[in-house]
Amino acid sequence: MTSAVSHSSILAQQPGPSAVSAALWQLGNVNGRPALRLGKRWLALDEVYSYSVEKVSERDNEGLLFNFALFGLLACAFVIPVLHEVMEPKFLIAAGLLGAIALMSLSEVIFAKKIEYFQLDFTMRNGEAISFTSSNANDVAAIMKTIQRLDRG
User: Which of 68, 109, 132, 145 could disulfide-link to 105, CB 3.0 to 4.6 Å?
Assistant: First the structure.
C-alpha cells in the first residue's frame, strides 16, 4: 500500500474519533482479511493500492451572488422608471426593500465562512476509486492511524 500525501502535515497529532463519527467507519474482518467499513461499504485493506488525504476548503457563494444580482436588478427596475417620472415616487419603497435584500445578500457573500472538510481517497488494485469525506479531522486521523498501523504490521 502506498500513500500519496504526507498525512502528518495535514492531520497533526489528532486524538481518537468521537462517538458519533465512530459509527461512520469501523475496522473488522471480511473473509478473515482485515477490512475497513466506510459508511455501508467494506474495503479489504489488502486490496487498497494507494490512499491519500486532502483538506478541502471552499466557500459556497454562487447562490448568494445570484440573489444579490437578482434583487439589485429588481431594485433598479423600480428606481429607473421613478427617476424618468414614468412611475410615482411611492414605488421607491419597493426599490428600497429590494435594495436592502440585495445588500444583505452581498454582506453574506463578504462575511461567509469557509467550509472545511477532509477527503480520504482510496485507489483499489482493480482501479476503482473510493472516497470518504468527513468534516471531523479526528475521524480522518483515526482512520489514517488505523490504516498505517495495519500497513506496518
Answer: 68
Q: Is 17 helix (H, G, I), strand (E, B) or coil?
A: coil
Q: Nearest-5° angle of CA 46, CA 51, CA 53? A: 145
Whole-model pTM over 0.70: no
Gyration radius from the chain CA atoms: 25
Distances in Å between the Cα of 63 and the Cα atoms of 68, 105, 146 are 9, 9, 39
The 10s digit of each residue's pLDDT in 95-140 is 999 999 999 999 998 988 888 999 999 998 999 998 888 888 888 8
The residues, ordered by sequence, that sit 6+ positions from 89 with a Cβ below 8 Å of its Cβ are 82
pLDDT interval class at 66 (50, 70, 90): very high
How many helices (H) does the chain have, and how many strands (E)?
4, 7
Phi, psi (rounded to 5 degrees) for 49: -85, -45
Highest mean pLDDT among 6-10, 15-19, 135-139: 135-139
Q: Which residues pair with 48 in a beta bridge?
A: 124
First-to-last alpha carbon distance for the chain, in angstroms, is 12
CA 50 to CA 54: how far, in whole Å?
14
